[in-house]
Amino acid sequence: METPPTKPPRRAVKYGKDEAGCGLIVNVIKSLGLSETNEERQREKQKIEKEFKKSDQRLNDLVSKHDQQLSQVIPLFTKVSSEINGSREKIHTVKENLNACKRLLQCRREELKKMWTDAVQHKYVLAMLEEINDLRKVPQSVVSYTSKRQYLHASKELTDALTQINGPLKDVEGLADIRSDLMGRRQHLYQRLHEELVSQIYHNSAQDVLSAFQRSNSNRLNQGFSRNITARRSTDRIEANARIRKALQEMAQGVDPTKTEIIEDIDLLDPELSMTYFIAIIVECFGMLGKVPDSIEKLRVGIQTELLEVVRNTTRQLIDSPLISNESYPLLTLLEVIFKQFKSIARTHTTVLRHFSAVVQKYQIVGPPHYSLTDFWSQAQSVLQLLLTDYLDIQNASADDSSQSSFAEPTSNINAFFLRRKVPSAKKSIFKFDKSSTKSTPSNEPNKGHRRNASDASMDNLNAALNASGGKAGANYSFKSNLPYEKQREKLLICTPDQTVITKVYLPLMGYIQEIENFMKCKPGQPCSLHDFIDNYIKDTFLSKGHNSHLKMTIETLSKNQDVWRTIISPEERAALGLTRPILQSTARVEKCLSETKQLIQDLPCYSEELLKTVCSVLRDYRVICNDAYLGIVQPDAEDRRIYSVTWLNDEDISRFLKTLPNWTDLKNSHQRPKHGKRLQRSQYDASEEESPLQIQQRNIREAEMLTSNLGEGGISQQEILGDVSVLKELAILQESMEWFSIRISEFANELRRPLVNGLNSVAPECAAYATVKDGTIKVLTNLALEFDELANTCLLVLHLEVRVQCFHYLRSKPQRTRADAFIDSKDDVLEPDRQVQILTKRLSELDEAFSTTLHPRKTRYIFEGLAHLAALILIQASNYIEQIDQITVKRICRNASALQQTLSNITASREVALDQAKQFYELLCMEPDVILTTLVEQGLQFSEMQYLNALQLSCKARGITDSNTLANYQHKLSDILGAKPSTGVMV
């Protein structure tokens, strides 16, 4: 079989410059054009002809070679051309047939159009009738779904019906009544859905918290607080919860919610799951009904009202609960429950807002922005402020301030009270208390002047003065309801309103405020409104008009009232304070204020610095008052009169010397070492290292010699001593009060160095920064404690010196005649000591009795210890004024020494051997001069050289030895003996 001819390629062949074809022709033209002579052209022509012959020969060879293929192509081409012509004729025939059909269809067009239009009209009428019939069933269906709480189906029915009636059926006049009914049912369903949502957000959330509180506090649930949930099978409960979770997941994925609503019995569902499901359903219904913006705005506007209702319902149920009746501070429980309820409601609001956001995005709703949790907590803070306003009695605080007026009697300054006036001013009293049981002491009472015993003063006088001046001391924040009923907002309170309740609720409140500020994401330095409210109330009302005002009023009353320095605490108060000695009622009052402040600092740690500043100011004022009281005691008369003991104490050398003695340092060190872990009491002291008897004797001798050397030649008059024992008793009570108060301040300052509050982490961070007391404030308190302690030291040193000054006054009077006939020869006169000594012993006994009831025994021992050495030195130095010695004089002085020794021994409970030395000295005067020197050699040095010299002179005079050579001889022997430095004996 022959192969068919192949079709030659139709692509154009491009020739290069050196190939045959067009390129060759171009080259020939160029060569001919560039030829200069004919010979060159002829040569080129011959060349071309030669090439042409070759090409022609080649073409002939190709034709002869493909002759068979050409003969086959030509018949095939003829056959194809004939078939194409036949197809054209067939297409022309089909076209003519189609034109004929078109003409036939156009003939039936009008008839077919009329028939189609009639059919469409009948179909539309039938569909409309069916829709109208369905619309008539919608109200009944909505009622049925609503009664079953199947709100999604009800909303779907209403939405579809309203869409239909306001869309295709909009122009149907007969549907006006149905349209109006459906619009009303839509609004009613919206109200029902809003009530359901509010109930889920507020009532159910709050009730769950309250039920949990009751379950944690009681084994038996109250009928009013628990839900009536009947027992269900666990399989049914598990299945129902699984179906709800699946429905929520499908709703989140965009599945038609009406196909997933399977709730029938909510008692089978978990409360949290049930709440989440209902909220999702209700919000979805709002989206269907087109009420999302309205519902959001209505929820935002009703937050405060609903929260107030929650507070009221919770308060009512807690009042009726038996668990609250045993609570000391039911308001703390109420605040705790309410704040937990608010947090639970806030979590529910978060769920609501999340579903609202999903519905808005799903239905592409355009409207106002959603409210946020910041808006909720702002309203919650307002509700808490209203709640606290009722319990803190803020409305009546201003009424209390306006009703307070100063009715205190005008009194003189404290200095004027303590100063004796030569011409007493007659005061005109407004009231008379002639028949009162506490009648004042007559002004002409002997030996009392304007003084009276501190224990005789009535404590009621001080309390009355404090209350009259405005210091209400605990009753300052009592609840008052003196406003007309119609002006008072109806309140349901769990306890009596009281401004001091802030101290009990402050720390829990600050914990709540810290959580609120975290929820609201408040920046540092920008506290929430509730924080500002609490801060302003504490500063402007509770502290400024309450506690601080009470402190200042107390100090002002103490500075004006004349009885405060006569009144001591009662035995009951002394036992309560753990004291064994009385203190001033004013000091106890100020210390009570200090204790109240200490408690306030524990309760209000963020205001510690402000409280301490007020305390420091009050303590400074009280320090001035106490110093005035001291000056009034020790300088009671005109400026020209001086008290010798005070004058001595003002001498820096004497004061420094007394404070360096071991008895003083031991006394102060024992005060500074209270037993650890126990309340400081006056009966608890740790003794320091005991001194040896020789050290005690030497120390007492040094003190006696120092005081004697500073006395001078003159004596001490009656005007230069504090002759009234009651005055010294007042000074002792002041000393005890100041020392006790100083210790209390020191303890207070030491406690401030520790954390003010346990669990301070519950306080807001910015508040915790202020809860630390500054070192400067603690230093101020420590300095004030030192000032009070210094005043106590001054009082004790004055008492110490005053006893010695009185010894000088009574023992170092002007010398009397020494002859035997200078004394009365009666038996009583011979056996009794001198009158001055009798007065002194009586005075010492009175002072001991006064100090034993007012001072600690160690202080009393400090006052009387060493007094025997001073008395012995005074008696021995009295020999310098005796011109002639005899047996009667010696016996008289020995009786004086024995009387003093007996009195001092009774006081100190030890034999005062120093007075034995005085008797031995005067017995030495009765000896011969040679015997005196022999005794010195045998017994050792017992007296000073001047005292031995004086004894030799008096002994010589008594024996009529007046020769100067003899006296010089005795003096020379005395010097020789003393130069040998005997090793025995103690010099007095």
UniProtKB/TrEMBL annotation:
<feature type="region of interest" description="Disordered">
    <location>
        <begin position="433"/>
        <end position="456"/>
    </location>
</feature>
<dbReference type="GO" id="GO:0032584">
    <property type="term" value="C:growth cone membrane"/>
</dbReference>
<feature type="domain" description="Exocyst complex component Sec8 middle helical bundle">
    <location>
        <begin position="329"/>
        <end position="441"/>
    </location>
</feature>
<dbReference type="GO" id="GO:0007268">
    <property type="term" value="P:chemical synaptic transmission"/>
</dbReference>
<comment type="function">
    <text>Component of the exocyst complex involved in the docking of exocytic vesicles with fusion sites on the plasma membrane.</text>
</comment>
<keyword id="KW-0175">Coiled coil</keyword>
<dbReference type="Pfam" id="PF20652">
    <property type="entry name" value="Sec8_C"/>
</dbReference>
<feature type="domain" description="Exocyst complex component Sec8 N-terminal">
    <location>
        <begin position="49"/>
        <end position="142"/>
    </location>
</feature>
<dbReference type="GO" id="GO:0045202">
    <property type="term" value="C:synapse"/>
</dbReference>
<dbReference type="InterPro" id="IPR007191">
    <property type="entry name" value="Sec8_exocyst_N"/>
</dbReference>
<feature type="region of interest" description="Disordered">
    <location>
        <begin position="668"/>
        <end position="692"/>
    </location>
</feature>
<dbReference type="GO" id="GO:0006893">
    <property type="term" value="P:Golgi to plasma membrane transport"/>
</dbReference>
<dbReference type="InterPro" id="IPR048630">
    <property type="entry name" value="Sec8_M"/>
</dbReference>
<feature type="compositionally biased region" description="Basic residues">
    <location>
        <begin position="670"/>
        <end position="681"/>
    </location>
</feature>
<keyword id="KW-0268">Exocytosis</keyword>
<dbReference type="GO" id="GO:0006612">
    <property type="term" value="P:protein targeting to membrane"/>
</dbReference>
<dbReference type="GO" id="GO:0006904">
    <property type="term" value="P:vesicle docking involved in exocytosis"/>
</dbReference>
<keyword id="KW-0813">Transport</keyword>
<dbReference type="GO" id="GO:0090522">
    <property type="term" value="P:vesicle tethering involved in exocytosis"/>
</dbReference>
<feature type="coiled-coil region">
    <location>
        <begin position="34"/>
        <end position="65"/>
    </location>
</feature>
<protein>
    <recommendedName>
        <fullName>Exocyst complex component Sec8</fullName>
    </recommendedName>
</protein>
<dbReference type="GO" id="GO:0000145">
    <property type="term" value="C:exocyst"/>
</dbReference>
<dbReference type="InterPro" id="IPR039682">
    <property type="entry name" value="Sec8/EXOC4"/>
</dbReference>
<keyword id="KW-0653">Protein transport</keyword>
<dbReference type="Pfam" id="PF04048">
    <property type="entry name" value="Sec8_N"/>
</dbReference>
<comment type="similarity">
    <text>Belongs to the SEC8 family.</text>
</comment>
<dbReference type="GO" id="GO:0015031">
    <property type="term" value="P:protein transport"/>
</dbReference>
